[in-house]
Amino acid sequence: MTATTELKNIISEENKVYGKTSVLLDNEMHYCPGCTHGVIHKAIAEVIEDMDIQEETIGVSPVGCSVLAYNYLDIDWQQAAHGRAPALATATTRLMPEKYVFTYQGDGDLASIGCAEIMHACNRGENIVVFFVNNGIYGMTGGQMAPTTLEGQVTATSPYGRDCQTTGFPMKISEMVSLLPGTRYVTRESAETAGAVRKLKKAVKKAFANTRENKGLSFIEIVGTCSSGWKQTPVQSNEWMKEHMFPYYPLGTLKDE
Amino acid sequence: MGDIRLMKGNEVIAEAAIRCGCDGYFGYPITPQSEIMETLMIRRPEQETGMVVVQAESEVAAINMVYGGASCGKKVMTSSSSPGISLKAEGITYLAGAELPALLVNIVRGGPGLGTIQPAQSDYFQAVKGGGHGDYKLIVLAPASVQEMNDFVDLSFELSFKYLNPAMILSDGVIGQMMEKVELSDFKPRWTAEEIEKISGSWATTGKKKGIKRRISTSLDLDSAKQEVFNHKLQAKYRAMEENEVRFEKIDCDDADYLFVAYGSSARICQKAIEIARAKGIKVGLLRPITLFPYPTKQIQEMLGQVKGILSVEMSAGQMVEDVRLAVEGKVPVEHFGRYGGIIPTPDEVVEALEQNFLGE
Ligand SMILES: Cc1ncc(C[n+]2csc(CCOP(=O)(O)OP(=O)(O)O)c2C)c(N)n1
């Protein structure tokens, strides 16, 4: 056998172990190298394909680095004002209860300006899925302090390290929303290894299944990195995340009812 | 037709919404308009027509619910009063930027700040000049009776879907709270999913069907060149509204030497003032703008060869008078008379202001 025919035999349908989901568009992503948004997008897109709900899914994109999430997932999208995605999602699910509606929000978006909207959507138990990407920083605007920034963490607006006495304490949003009777499923995941992504996908699948069964609000926090904002290499970022973020934001399911 | 009732202006807004096939109302209580949501909650339209009614956690959330619902091609609305509309400014500019239809109702009260709960017209600038950020306009309708509160609900939806632009009913605490005879509209069914697909299929985010282009409801374009092209398109739309949608009423104008320009409650006061003035031998008429945007600029200009002076009567410190002056371009004197902070002018005061300004008394 020649090398070419050998290759042809390998590239055949029965040997296929992986393919890019068609729910993910071919557009080149604008995210920085090492950013977690892209991996999370892919996980969500793959679950949408697996569950065959592409035609029924409506995403609400935030303000922040992932404001352009609609450029990457081939579904209908609404682009919300900073923090307001849960309000758009509320109306969308109320007016079209048979659809799968999700918001995709950063920590500045969800925990700061949109703190009221997320608490109340959770408290009302809207039948939606919330993806909360916690990278502990405002990525898009150049690395300012977020509500989730860790104590002592250096950011553009906490240049001497976050001083909790004057800036408050890093907010544990998942813990807060898990206390609300309206939330059905609350979990904290990550996406830095293949194993973590597999777990994340399982959580995403469960969340959309909750929507299908009209069970109410599923909240998935994903602890992620922001190499640009953290001023670290992607590898350093992952290490720093494991060392500093995971102890304060422990991974795992907080609520599953 | 023929369903005649004695109702409050605010209650009529709610009833008209149910009857015109509105899909969703999202609001937050504030005086003097809380009866709108209260009436909806009593009426339970969810059971009758399927219309969804949600008490949001804030005006900010309410208007963003409207944004989400409008994105789905649904007939959605909110209502509030002045401080609440300021909070809604964020969502309103997003609606305008995403070119979405929606009905906004402002039952104005006196300000600034928390102000008073008494009626005023001091949100004119906010309503017709933008109010939020960016170059945008709302379609603004100003009812002067409870009947028009009924009629303008359906009309607002019609215009806002025609132009894919939010429309506002700018009313005030007088008309919201007063009771009058009203002939209610007949019931229209809510649009079905198929009808929405037909009417709004190119933009409504109802789920991407195989073989058709996905839809994105957004006001974002980071490319300035494209943003400018988009802004050109918006401005062309506003010019088309100015061409086609101006609505106004003229009362006693044929022989008028002087002209009142007034809208809403102030226009009603002017009608009484006309009677008083005419009894004194002063020939005065009224031009009542019904659409505040687009403004009846041409109709005011048409009066210029005839009248010697124009008095803009408003429950504000002088807001609409600027649009009257722009129309008049200095060709005749234009003065303003207003009471504000929640005080309603009397017809006698209006006549006195006319005399003082134009008759040297
Ligand atoms: C009303 C409003 N305020 C402020 C901003 C500016 N802004 C854009 S993105 C952002 C922070 C987003 O941070 P986060 O939600 O953590 O997302 P990330 O960029 O880190 O993914 C801010 C403050 C805005 N667009 N709108």
TrEMBL record, chain A:
Q: Does the keyword Oxidoreductase apply?
A: yes
Matching entries from SUPFAM superfamilies are given as:
Thiamin diphosphate-binding fold (THDP-binding)
- Keywords assigned: Oxidoreductase
Superkingdom classification of source: Bacteria
Span of the secretion signal? Answer: none
In this chain the Thiamine pyrophosphate enzyme TPP-binding domain maps to 70-222
Q: Name one Pfam family in it.
A: TPP_enzyme_C
Checking PANTHER family in the record gives: 2-OXOGLUTARATE OXIDOREDUCTASE SUBUNIT KORB-RELATED, SUBUNIT OF PYRUVATE:FLAVODOXIN OXIDOREDUCTASE
Protein name (record): Thiamine pyrophosphate-dependent enzyme
Record organism: Paralabilibaculum antarcticum
TrEMBL record, chain B:
The alphabetized UniProt keywords are:
Oxidoreductase
Under InterPro entries, the record lists:
2-oxoacid_oxidoreductase, PFOR_II, Pyrv_Fd/Flavodoxin_OxRdtase_N, THDP-binding, Transketo_C/PFOR_II
Which residue ranges does the record assign to the Pyruvate:ferredoxin oxidoreductase core domain? Answer: 256-350
Top-rank taxon of the source lineage equals Bacteria
Domain Pyruvate flavodoxin/ferredoxin oxidoreductase pyrimidine binding, which positions?
15-188
Transferase is among the record's keywords: no
Q: Which Pfam families match?
A: PFOR_II, POR_N
- Is Isomerase a UniProt keyword of this protein? no
Question: What's this protein's name?
Answer: 3-methyl-2-oxobutanoate dehydrogenase subunit VorB
According to the entry, what is the taxonomic lineage of the organism?
Bacteria, Pseudomonadati, Bacteroidota, Bacteroidia, Marinilabiliales
